[in-house]
Amino acid sequence: MAHLPKFAASTEQRIAELQEELRLVEAGEHPKFLEKLREFQQKQADEIEMIDIMYEREKEEIERKFRLEHAAIQRELKEREDDLVQALLLEVDDRIRFIEAEVAVLDVAGPACPTFSMNKKCLRRRPHDTPTSSEKKKARTNAPAIIHLLPEHIIAEDVRLLVPAESIPSVVQHHKVSMENGKLIYEGKTYQRGQALVVQTENYGAFAGMILSICDQYIQFRSTVPGDTRQVLATMDDLESGRVILRKKIV
Q1: Full domain range(s) for residue 44
Q2: Which UniProt keywords are given for this protein, alphabetically ordered (predicted)?
Q3: What's the pLDDT band for 251 if we cut at 50, 70, 90?
Q4: 116 within some domain
């Protein structure tokens, strides 16, 4: 029993120490708490610094890649622009040569024999006289060529609106016509520019001629008979519908 007062005193001292530690913990001033807090803050600061360093490195790497890719895109764009300019220049040169060749063909394909105007005294025809064969030929030669730039079905539709349906003749497409590599394919036969052939139209009849030019809109024919200046501009519809008929030789 002699040790009881001493044990009680040590217990009270321990309780007082624990209460003091509890007060320090509640106040946030406990030494161990402060030590752990400093360690955590230091670790947090180190991690934030590492994150900032990694962020700067990633940023620099992204900017470097962007500059390289941007420079490569600019070089590729410049090369493509140069290629496009060169292609356009070549196309313009080809077009100029084509036009010059067309002009040369038109100049060369003039009348085989030059015609000279002669002062010829002609008698006046009486009102009831019939025209001579030469006058008929001249009138037929000077007949204007009608160029149909519209497709056949559009022309037929316009005609139906103007005249009764029973008075419109039916149009039959019976000729196979196509274009391939600047050449005309007519009824399975190939025609090219400068080729001699026979052209037959309703206004001019049949005559020996040649192909002056071939394009997507029309084909131009010219008579090769000396002194004959007949020319025909025929569209694809003219050839398909039979308004203009082509043959390689006179039947």
Answers
A1: 13-87
A2: Nucleus, Repressor, Transcription, Transcription regulation
A3: low
A4: no
Tokens of 166: 């029973």
Task: Enumerate the H helices of 1-30 as residue ranges.
Answer: 4-27
User: Per-residue pLDDT for 203 more than 60?
Assistant: yes
- Is residue 232 within 8 A of residue 244, CB to CB? The reply is yes
Residue 1 covered by a domain:
no
Between CA 177 and CA 236 the distance in angstroms is 7
Residue 145's pLDDT band, with cuts at 50, 70 and 90, is very low
184: CB partners within 8 A, 6+ apart: 177, 178, 190, 191, 192, 211, 214, 219
CATH of the domain at 178: 2.30.30
Taking residue 214's Cβ as centre, other Cβ atoms within 10 Å add up to: 17
Confidence of residue 99 (pLDDT cuts 50, 70, 90): confident
DSSP 8-state symbol, 91:
H
How many domains does the chain contain in total? 2
Query: Of 63, 87, 111, which closes a domain?
Result: 87
Half-sphere exposure of 7 (CA within 13 A, CB side): 4
Q: Model confidence at 109, in pLDDT bands (50, 70, 90)?
A: very low
pLDDT band of residue 175 (cuts 50, 70, 90) is confident
